[in-house]
Amino acid sequence: MTTHYPLSEIPPDIVCADDYERHAREALPHSTYEHIASGSGDEITLRGNRDAFQQVQILPRMLRRFDRASAQLSLFGDRYASPMVVAPLAYQQLAHPEGELATAAAADALDCGFVCSTLASCSLERVASAGRSPKWFQLYFQASRANTLALVRRAEQAGYRAIVVTVDSSVTGIRNRSQRAGFALPDNVQAANLRELAPPPPRPLKQDESIILNGIMADAPDWDELAWLRSQTALPLIVKGIIHPEDARQALLLGADGLVVSNHGGRSLDGCPASLRMLPLIRRTVDAFAASHPHRTAATVLLDSGIRRGSDVFKALALGADAVLLGRPCFYALSVAGALGVAHLLRTLKEEFELTLALSGCQTPADISRDAVIIPRDFSPDIPGCETNHATDH
Amino acid sequence: MTTHYPLSEIPPDIVCADDYERHAREALPHSTYEHIASGSGDEITLRGNRDAFQQVQILPRMLRRFDRASAQLSLFGDRYASPMVVAPLAYQQLAHPEGELATAAAADALDCGFVCSTLASCSLERVASAGRSPKWFQLYFQASRANTLALVRRAEQAGYRAIVVTVDSSVTGIRNRSQRAGFALPDNVQAANLRELAPPPPRPLKQDESIILNGIMADAPDWDELAWLRSQTALPLIVKGIIHPEDARQALLLGADGLVVSNHGGRSLDGCPASLRMLPLIRRTVDAFAASHPHRTAATVLLDSGIRRGSDVFKALALGADAVLLGRPCFYALSVAGALGVAHLLRTLKEEFELTLALSGCQTPADISRDAVIIPRDFSPDIPGCETNHATDH
Amino acid sequence: MTTHYPLSEIPPDIVCADDYERHAREALPHSTYEHIASGSGDEITLRGNRDAFQQVQILPRMLRRFDRASAQLSLFGDRYASPMVVAPLAYQQLAHPEGELATAAAADALDCGFVCSTLASCSLERVASAGRSPKWFQLYFQASRANTLALVRRAEQAGYRAIVVTVDSSVTGIRNRSQRAGFALPDNVQAANLRELAPPPPRPLKQDESIILNGIMADAPDWDELAWLRSQTALPLIVKGIIHPEDARQALLLGADGLVVSNHGGRSLDGCPASLRMLPLIRRTVDAFAASHPHRTAATVLLDSGIRRGSDVFKALALGADAVLLGRPCFYALSVAGALGVAHLLRTLKEEFELTLALSGCQTPADISRDAVIIPRDFSPDIPGCETNHATDH
Amino acid sequence: MTTHYPLSEIPPDIVCADDYERHAREALPHSTYEHIASGSGDEITLRGNRDAFQQVQILPRMLRRFDRASAQLSLFGDRYASPMVVAPLAYQQLAHPEGELATAAAADALDCGFVCSTLASCSLERVASAGRSPKWFQLYFQASRANTLALVRRAEQAGYRAIVVTVDSSVTGIRNRSQRAGFALPDNVQAANLRELAPPPPRPLKQDESIILNGIMADAPDWDELAWLRSQTALPLIVKGIIHPEDARQALLLGADGLVVSNHGGRSLDGCPASLRMLPLIRRTVDAFAASHPHRTAATVLLDSGIRRGSDVFKALALGADAVLLGRPCFYALSVAGALGVAHLLRTLKEEFELTLALSGCQTPADISRDAVIIPRDFSPDIPGCETNHATDH
Q: Cβ C171–B357 below 8 Å, yes or no?
């Protein structure tokens, strides 16, 4: 592995998120770059995420008044500079020695939300202390409830403002590019939060049983686990990895306060639809649920997977998201120039989002209605039992 | 910056507009070429403009009579050789020392319309004197009404025949290619028309306010400004940068005499639909307005963004334009061979347009009906409140 | 121009029509290759012709009986080996010193139809004597009726079996690749049939008149000329270059015995739809005309532009053609290996067509019904006044 | 031909089926690779097979219970590890000296089904003895019933559990890449099963008769031959090469127990639709037949052509297949690393399939319903007389 020296200033040819990817390809060891950049399988979903954004168009209005304009918004009672939150990225010391601490500091400097991963390479307590802006903790269910609960309690203690529980990764997806590049976690990068948790005892398999279907999946969480988790914490509970509207509804029924429509950045099930395409269906499900549960606070909808531009944030909001999570670009910026890089990236994206508001004639995120975009016919699938989502359907 | 010597004759391998772009890439300094050729953001709209033209097909009729054939047409009472007008391009001295004077002379030689930009590098008075063919003046609203009015009065005095007010550029779009190439206006190229106008005082921002949303946009014009402008001049008023049919209707209500359906050549909001796709909706809006306002002269519809061939002009007319504006190709031709290059370009495009008339069986621009083209289903979006525009809808 | 030595045997790597194009690119002078291979304008129509064939799929039936199988068919009373006819290609001495004589001899050897061009580089009389298989004469209207009639009379005398009058080329299309390559007809290649015809006197143009619209097009033929031509010959009259169903109907009303649905191989109006896409509409028009004119012999429908495979012939027949014309591939084969090359090409395509019959379960050309193919929705345009042509419409 | 040394271990950069193709390109003589890898004609169908899989998306469900999970299934009374069967591939000694014996041994090791080809390079009896897992015999109709029957009887004797009769290859498709590469069967590779069968006497052709249509096709089987074959054996009879639903129905009427929806891997009729696109129509036909013939065992539907991933197996099952045949990848793995390679390939694909089950929330193949996937509108064609298959049709 080559040694990596992060830059201490931003090269003038870095002017957007994709430029960070280009530079990160040079800055990172090949196997790390491949591990991060790749999607699962044939990367159909990875490409699909980007393609979906490119197919949505923005319909600008001219000469509108801008006398109350602002990109800010509130999520779970906290105020943020824009509808962008840094996604939970595992093992950020792969990118930079300061890892999550640098990223969190940058988010803090920009008043941007930040989600700390269960698989952070710095402990959740240290990350919590990086800046004063509100943070959320991402939770992977552990093999034992005791271990899961230990993580939740630590997050509560450390002052995290919400739990983001990931449900789309019971098993790891097919990561062929990572495999071909021979990626392995280096010894000095570890899951700091899990160091003291005892691993579960191995489960013996009968003949003809499958390691995947009868080994790993036997330990995978189900809806009962989510109900249990809901009963264990008073923090807002956000379920990450929802693609099907029925799963959205089930999560809400069990008490979820928020959903992240996500396909794990194309890293889990290859062939899964772009999360942006599922978003309008999930939004409709959430709205229908809210209408029939007037005493519940309406759930928050976040969108993950494929955001590379401020205009992508705009499109996600027009299709039903309240805010978006920003993943790989933060990792790339971190690897190129540490906290400075992440801060520059976040500022650039915020400015792009503000320019999109200005040029489209929207003063605030709340002004971004469905009518502000053009969605191709058949952009979202027809799902039995869910209402249709055609371009003609306004 | 390398010195640029425009050619004094046209190389034999330049036989169409795209050939000028190819040569201009060599003739221009890299950063200037990048600045001109690029679109905003990921250039989705830039590519979309070209793609839209390629998707429209022409349905030729054979053996028709040609006994009254002509490509000429009238706009606002003036007669032109064809439905092509040179678009308002800023800072043409970037391309050639003679700048707008050379371009205007070429347009004059071909009886082609010409629009002088607020940001011309030669003063509007000098441009007005380049040839006798009628010209229009493009107006950017200035930060003060006094400054705006000063420009309008100078244009009236200099004999311009119409005001083309641009409304789609309150802020500058994201120009990443230009930024990466390090483009900056050279010292010897300036906005000649603005030299004596006092800049507005800086507006102080509160904490948490955005330079874009609360700084620049607070000075941006709104519909009230357009109404004011309408009241200040008797010249035909053309509103440039209309994409949404509702904005078209609003401009007409406020007294606009013409509209330019345009996305600023893909340089303003990336993700904006191709102007050609919006054209049929705007045309319908203009026709409906004319039908309900029989005492007003019917407004003129121009189309901007993506014209590279005489057949593109034909397609734009079939979809509802009265004429088109021609932008980047003129800049390229100017940079390659000065006035001679622009004249050659305009002649080539006019001949292409005439060949398209001849081969399609249309004697005049007025003969180009909607039935002369095939428009793919879903070419134009469905917009709530606007009538649909399907291929089956005749 | 480099000297060209045609091969005397077929290289083993030539196994299909496209292989001849690949070899011809080497065998021909660059400017000649560019002139022949290119389409007009941006070659949208050239590509569209090929694309259309690729979008039609063949639905094979298995285990059918083959006890009366044959690829042969009759056209205007003559029997041919398959539904393929060599198209009228101008100036074949550009490809080979023996020009049309070699091509005609090859067609004769394969019992394949052959059309001699007005612009043949060998006289129509010499071509007529090359082999005994029936041939047709392609006619361009001349500037004077006397000259046109002289050509018709010579064709009748020489024993041609039909007149194919081309109506889609009143002016030459935009041939940029040919222009850039500097193509010009060499001195030793001439339009042999026109040598003794007096050119028309030049037509003076008024000021502001266009050479194209008021010069060339003033001499262009119209429907009256077609009616006159019909009255002058008893030979079957085939009108070549029909794209619009209304023009098909008009030609039939004036007495045409056949139509060639063609866009001149993408060399005339760029942006014209693929002829294959218009074919079903033309076939419907021809059938409707035949139904309402029971005393007329039903007109023959030919298809031109884009045939490169035996399966393309199959697809054209399924969409309504009685037979197809084969253009550029013959020119390429002629340039690579003279008469031998053309014969090899025609045999290869005939075998491909026979294999397609065999594998699809069709015994004869007449067995190829619309149900034998899958046509994408929106493959053909909706034309006002013509019935629709959707995939669902059976 | 270069000598080929199969690997004795799997290189670490082989992690999926496509990696075997990449390595096989190096391992195999060029002409053999071209012969195997290529499709017929312009390879439209070859590409179409892959494209069809990429267009189907999987809609995952989260947090489902996995307490009875298994990838196993039964076919014709035998139990297999997963719904994957090794397809009948001719002449496997082209890939490896041990040929079919190595492939069969690998299938046996993985409890995977295996089909021995009529054109195997090892005798069907030797193949039958390679491992104890159940195998099927693929039958090509021979020119005489006696020869066909001899093969059936030998297969019965050798213990094959089903007859797979291929009906889509009466003539060989157009194999241009194979021709250009000069592929010919080497002397040491032969159709071992046919060595002792007397070839049919040559059939004399009349003048004007075609070798293809009147020679080869006169010997081709028809439905009467299938009825005869059905009457000759009590083994399950599977008809391979069905594309049209009407042919599926006809095969069922004549007593077929199973169907393979296949276009011969794009090697027979180029232009044939992807087998995956026809699958839903065939499944519907089979279900309708089963509903109207309650006393018959419901027929088994297999899918062939284009499987490269475990997720492809999942998609095929969701669209109506009971299991899939796996062709070229086995040949590539055999050529790269013999039995070891095939075993590794089969294990990799089985794990991919299990991961897809796990990530999509399906415990077993039977859980994979139509609702687990998103099928684009117009994915399958409308066929007159068959019910439609739109995405909206649930």
A: no
